[in-house]
Amino acid sequence: MWRKSKPYLLLLPATAAIILLFFGGIFDGLLKSFGYFPAIGQTELNLAAYDRLLSSEAFWESLTLTLRVAALSSLLSAIIGALVAIALFFLNDAMKTTSPKAWHRLFQLPLTIPHLVAGYIIVLLFMQSGFVSRILAAIGWIDDIADFPVLVNDPFGWGIIFTYAWKEAPFVALMLYPVLSRIHGSWREVSRVFGAGNWQFIREVVMPVMMPAWTVATFIVFVFTFSAFEVPYLLGVTYPSVLPVYSYQLYTSGTLADRPEALAVNMILAAITILLGLVAYYFSKRWNVLKGWG
Amino acid sequence: MNDLRIIDMEKRYKSAQPREENSFMLRPVRLAIREGEFFSLLGPSGCGKTTLLKLVAGLLEADGGEVWVGDENLTNVPPESRRFAMVFQQSLLFPHKTIEDNVAFGLKMQKVGKQQRLKAAHGMLEHVGLSGFGSRFPDDLSGGQQQRVALARALVANPRVLLMDEPFSALDPGLRVEMRELLSRIQKEFRVTVLFVTHDRDEAFALSDRIGVMGEGKLQQVGSARELYERPETTTVASFLGLRNILGGVIENGHFASTDQLIQAAVNRPLANGDYFMIIRPEALKTVESDQLGQVRIKGIVQELKYGRGMYSLKVKAGHQLMECMLTISQAEKIAVGEPIDLFVDMKEVWFLKK
User: Fold this and answer.
1) Quick check: B108 contacting A, CB < 8 Å?
2) Which one, of B248, B255, B247, B254, lies nearest residue B285 by Cα?
3) Contact at 8 Å (CB) between B169 and B199?
4) Domain B243-354, what architecture?
5) Which of A67, A94, B42, B190 has the most CB within a 10 Å radius?
6) 86-105 in B: which are within 8 Å (CB) of A?
């Protein structure tokens, strides 16, 4: 009896902490989003917060911005990441010496930098009085630093997108590279003998092989950028703001009456994330064509 | 005529240690393979035969020499434009493609329409005995079946030359024989020029029109199986072909005497005086004296008697020399290890090699 239950008991503290913090937090948030707030005497559950939220223009603008930023940053990092991974793959093929190692390290560098720092780097580089702008002005590409497009703290969210693209592209590459390195070196030889040039090899072999991992990596980036707070907080504008920032703004607005709405935003974020997760799971199941290869 | 001609191809590999300048090299090889011929490169591992194959395919860059097919110089043509095909030791099928897509791969690269290339793929799968397997994935097939698919993939695009790099060495022996027969039949049917690399003598002998024996990064001798086996030009070729009864000696006035005085016999061919090797095929050694003339007796002690596939192989210590011969089961019955034995050499069957 003891022997059987021992592993479970040993796992209990960790499990308890996870359940309490994760599900407890969600449950608490859910309750409060339904208007349950004993501190101000509200104990009735209702959908008023959701109602108000869904009929407010600010919410929809925020949702549109969030989806756009998340979609563009994941798309951009997926493309850059894939290019980097493929480049590293061919690099490894071309020179079997020690030099590819240095390249790998270079592309791993962004992974070690915290998002907040990455955000600041983008600010310093790309704001109108930033590094890039001043260099372009100095070499005469633009007359004045004010001519530099507003890329940071802009309503479209370019700054956020750049930060995520820079930060997540190596993540995508890191997810793809092991998959690519499983590609048999001799497959290149086979495809060459049968008439495939580099581009055909990429299209016929490399792309299909990396597709499942690529989709998963892109999805992870999407979900992350969709619900991340610090970079949009630093690089976004006050209005419209992305959903996590919007939630924060509501929560700290000063009136306790806004709090159910703030938590309702979070619940909607969580619901959308779960929905996307299910969609991604469904698609990844359909790619079991690749079972057991390698 | 679309003969494959290899003119003085060579390859040097730089060694990791700077002191040895070349750790391995393929010395210039000159070879002409006729259209529709089955040519094997036979040699031990590391002798450079796979290197030569990859040079012909264009997968390795040669340090010198040229490859021609007919009157077209392919030396600087990239491998994807040579219209060659290759079968490797592993099948190397693409796991994400179905069998028919794998077979049709070469045609797809040549921009053949989908219907047409799938039709050709089905036809070729039928030839290798795998019709109905088209929509499966490589994982669902056994090793032998995968290698048949690889063969179909190689042949479907009607290649000018089919290169094969020990394609059956990863298969079990029964399957290997079966694949040999399949390959032999298909090669004759399609009249495709084959350059086949193997370290398996039986395989090379069973399949080839001609064989090139390679050793130490050099093409040692080219000829039919029988020419090579009965008239090897060097002791390297002889010993690789399993001829281990090699006696050093001198011929003087039509008389051979081995250095260790084991054999003294009249030579039945006009050979100039000098130092020679006498090579005795295992089949030329007998344990009973027949009434034919020209037999020479060797005395020795039985060292080893081993049974193998209906025959016994016998090792006899004679002087410092270890002689090998083959015996039938009834001949072997009277023999025991450690006992003295008389061996008789049929002098008509021996081969002399100038040192």
Assistant:
1) yes
2) B247
3) yes
4) Beta Barrel (2.40)
5) B42
6) 86, 88, 90, 92, 94-97, 105
Report percent pLDDT > 90 for chain B.
Answer: 51
Q: How far apart are CA B47 and CA B66, in angstroms?
A: 20
Å between B317 CA and nearest CA of chain A: 47
Nearest CA in chain A to B98: A289
Amino acid letter for position B35:
E
For residue A278, with 0-12 CB atoms within 10 Å meaning exposed, 13-18 middle and 19 or more buried, which class applies?
Answer: exposed
In a domain, A169, yes or no: yes
Stretch(es) of chain B classified as CATH 3.40.50.300: 4-238
Q: Could you tell me how many helices (H) and strands (E) chain A has, helices first?
A: 14, 0
Determine whether the interchain pair B83/A195 forms a contact, defined as Cβ–Cβ distance below 8 Å: yes
Which letter does DSSP use for residue A1 in this model?
-
Q: Give the domain extent around A56.
A: 48-290
- Residue by residue, pLDDT tens for chain A (294 residues) are 677 888 888 899 999 998 999 888 888 888 888 888 777 777 788 888 888 888 888 899 999 999 999 999 999 999 999 998 888 887 776 665 556 677 777 777 777 888 888 888 888 888 888 888 888 888 888 888 888 888 888 888 888 898 898 888 988 988 888 888 877 678 888 999 999 988 899 889 888 888 888 888 888 899 889 888 888 888 888 788 888 999 998 888 878 778 888 899 999 998 998 898 888 778 777 665 444 443
Candidates B79, B95, B137; nearest CB to A193: B79
Does A203 contact B at CB distance below 8 Å?
Answer: no
Q: What number of C-beta contacts closer than 8 Å exist between A and B?
A: 72
Instruction: Mark whether A281 and A141 lie in a shared domain.
Output: yes
Residue A110 maps to a domain: yes
Residue A174, domain member (yes or no)? yes
A205 touches chain B (CB under 8 A): yes
B140–chain A Cβ distance below 8 A for any pair: no
Which class in CATH covers the domain with range B4-238?
Answer: alpha beta
CA angle B6, B11, B15 (to 5 degrees): 165
User: Are A113 and A203 within 8 A, CB to CB?
Assistant: no
Q: Look up the ipTM and state it.
A: 0.79
Surface of B (264-323) touching A: CB under 8 A: none
Inspect the interface and report whether the beta carbons of A290 and B95 lie closer than 8 Å. Answer: yes
Please check the confidence at residue B172 and state whether its pLDDT lies above 70: yes
H or E element, residue B92: none
The residue among B149 and B216 whose pLDDT is bigger is B149
- The separation between CA B270 and the C-alpha centre of its own chain, rounded to angstroms, equals 31
pLDDT at position B207: 94
B116 touches chain A (CB under 8 A): no
B192 interfaces chain A, CB cutoff of 8 Å = no
Among the partner residues A197, A200, A205, nearest to B94 by beta-carbon distance: A205
Q: How many independent structural domains does chain A possess?
A: 2
Is residue A207 less than 8 Å (CB to CB) from chain B? no
Inspect the interface and report whether the beta carbons of B163 and A193 lie closer than 8 Å: yes
For residue A58 the two structure tokens come to 């600010």
